[in-house]
Design goal:
Largest sheet: 2 strands, antiparallel
Distance between the termini: 65 Å
CATH architecture of the largest domain: Up-down Bundle
Shape: globular
CATH class of the largest domain: Mainly Alpha
Strand order of the largest sheet: 1-2
Number of strands: 2
C-alpha cells in the first residue's frame, strides 16, 4: 500500500503526511493531524516534523522504529487567515484553545461564591441529588457545583478546581474542542448516574476530570512513553482524591468509564466500518439509558 506524502488532506482525521493512517492527535503549532510516527514531543504538546524544522532547525527527526523517513512532503498553501481559524477550531495555538475549559472553571467558581451568599441555592438546583433524577439537567450540571459551607468545604472545592486548571486546558488542546466537550459531558452523565444509583450525591469536577484522563489514556495507549506518563498522572490524582475521602469513588470510576468508552468508540468506528454517527448514537443511547434507570430507581423527591 502506497502512502503519498504530498496528497491533499481530505479527511481531518488522517495524518497529513500519511493519508492512509488515522489519528486524532493534532500538531499544536499548525493544527494538522499527525500519526504516531510523525508526532514529535515538544516542551508543550506534540509538533509535526515540518513545524520542528521551522522553529528549531537543529532538531534531528527520527521516525518510530528507525524507519527511513519518506520523501519530504510539499508544503501546502493555505488561504490568508485560515490557519489561525483552523487552529482555534481545533483547540490549538493560543489562549482561545483553552476557552472551554476556562469557562467551565469560571462558572464553577462563580456558582460556589453564589452558593456562599444564597445558602447553597446553585447546589440545590444543579447537583445530582438522589430523588431528583427526573430533573435531567442535573446529570450535566452536577460537576459545576459544590456545597458551600464551612472553610473545610472551600478546601475540598478548590482541590478539583486546581487539578482542572493544571490539566484541562492541555487535555482540550490534545483532544480538540468537540471531543473535549463530548468526553466531559459523557463522563459527567455516567459518573453522576452511577453515584445516584449507589444512593449518593454527585457534585464537583471529579467525574469529567477523570473522564478526560481516561480518554487521553486511550488516545496515547499505543505510545508507551506517553502512556506511562498518563498512568502516573491518573495514579497521583487518584491517591490525592482518595486522601480527601472515598465518598466520590463511584463518581470517579464512572467518569473514567464514560470518558474512555466514548473516545474508544470514536477511534475504533472507522476500523469496524461504522458510519460516523454510530459511535455518537451508541454513547447517547447509553447515557439516556442510565438517566432513565436512575429516574426509575430513585423515584421522586417529595
Amino acid at each position: 500500500m502506497s502512502e503519498g506524502t504530498g496528497a491533499v488532506e481530505i479527511d481531518p482525521s488522517v495524518c497529513y503526511r500519511h493519508p492512509g493512517r488515522q489519528s486524532w492527535v493534532l500538531c499544536q503549532r499548525c493544527g494538522r493531524t499527525v500519526c504516531p510516527e510523525c508526532q514529535i514531543l515538544a516542551p508543550v504538546g506534540v509538533h509535526c516534523p515540518d513545524c520542528v524544522r521551522e522553529t528549531s532547525g537543529g532538531v534531528a527527526w527520527r521516525p518510530a522504529g528507525n524507519v527511513a523517513p519518506m520523501t519530504k512532503p510539499k508544503r501546502r498553501r493555505r488561504p490568508v487567515g485560515s490557519g489561525r481559524t483552523r487552529s482555534m477550531l481545533a483547540g490549538w495555538g493560543g489562549v482561545s484553545g483553552a476557552s472551554v475549559s476556562q469557562i467551565v472553571l469560571v462558572v464553577y467558581a462563580a456558582l460556589f461564591l453564589i452558593g456562599l451568599l444564597t445558602n447553597n441555592l446553585p447546589f440545590d438546583w444543579l447537583a445530582g441529588i438522589p430523588g431528583y433524577g427526573w430533573q435531567v439537567w442535573r446529570f450535566v450540571t452536577a460537576p459545576l457545583v459544590y456545597p458551600a459551607s464551612a472553610s473545610i468545604a472551600i478546601l475540598y472545592a478548590a482541590l478539583p478546581a486546581v487539578f482542572w486548571w493544571l490539566t484541562a486546558p492541555q487535555l482540550e488542546r490534545m483532544l480538540g474542542v468537540r471531543r473535549f466537550l463530548g468526553v466531559a459531558a459523557t463522563a459527567s452523565v455516567v459518573g453522576t448516574a452511577g453515584t445516584m444509583l449507589a444512593g449518593g450525591g454527585s457534585y464537583g469536577l471529579t467525574a469529567p476530570l477523570f473522564g478526560l484522563f481516561a480518554a487521553l489514556l486511550v488516545e496515547v495507549w499505543e505510545q508507551p512513553q506517553l502512556r506511562a506518563q498518563i498512568l502516573v498522572m491518573i495514579g497521583i490524582n487518584l491517591l490525592l482524591s482518595l486522601a480527601f475521602g472515598a465518598s466520590g469513588l463511584t463518581m470517579l470510576v464512572g467518569g473514567m468509564i464514560g470518558g474512555a468508552g466514548s473516545l474508544w468508540l470514536l477511534r475504533t468506528a472507522p476500523s469496524r466500518g461504522w458510519k460516523p454517527r454510530t459511535p455518537i448514537l451508541i454513547t447517547v443511547g447509553v447515557c439516556v439509558g442510565l438517566v432513565l434507570l436512575t429516574v426509575l430507581r430513585g423515584g421522586f423527591a417529595a
